[in-house]
Amino acid sequence: MRVAAIQFRPPKGRPRAARLALRVLLDEAGHRGADLIVCPEMATTGYVWESPRALGPHSERARGETFRMLAEVAREHTSWVVCGFPELFVHPEQKSASGRAMATLYNSALVVSPMGELVTCYRKMLLYEADETWASPGWRRSLIPTDHGALVPAICMDLNDPRFTTFLYDQQPRVVAFCTNWIEEGAPVHGYWRDRLLGFNGSFVAANSWGEDGDVRFCGRSAIFGPGRTVLAQAAAEGDVVLVADLPDEP
Question: How many folded domains does the chain comprise?
Fold first, then answer.
């Protein structure tokens, strides 16, 4: 199984421009033969938003423009694609005092099959403080069967959630698709990720952002870990890049 992690810094609040730039990187991963392509958390908008009102105009429904672009990529390259975005979920049965449908924002990740189908829209369960200004938490994890083995999508702070690591230990999927905006904390991030994955025997594909978003700086250093938490590929702290690695065959 060949996997790809896309390190990408989206233009803040410009989802159309972000999709155009991301499409180039996705196509590069596809042309390099990736069976699975993982993009960062909030890959169409940037991460730091002060309120639902500020982010709302840039959010979209699960089957919106970002999904349609990812579905084209998935079909063209016969690849699984996992990509973070701000999800707008409308509750048609719930109305405001003015009669408008109520909506919820989630920090989500689309999982698209090689047939271009939306398999799931995973919603981040453990929110970081920067999420709490606008997002609601998810409530359900996903274990997705594929021809290459089971796939689990995860988003950033999920890795700090003992419920998530217990889920990995119990289920032992072949690969975790990790969409992240991991912050620069002045410590080796790969060592921390590897410590959190202790007891998990599969592979880990971490796609991070880089650079600054307001007062927050992301650490880059996207990586692909194979079984045993061996580093198969890694990126520098800055720059858009496509990492590709071949995972060993399952025993």
Answer: 1
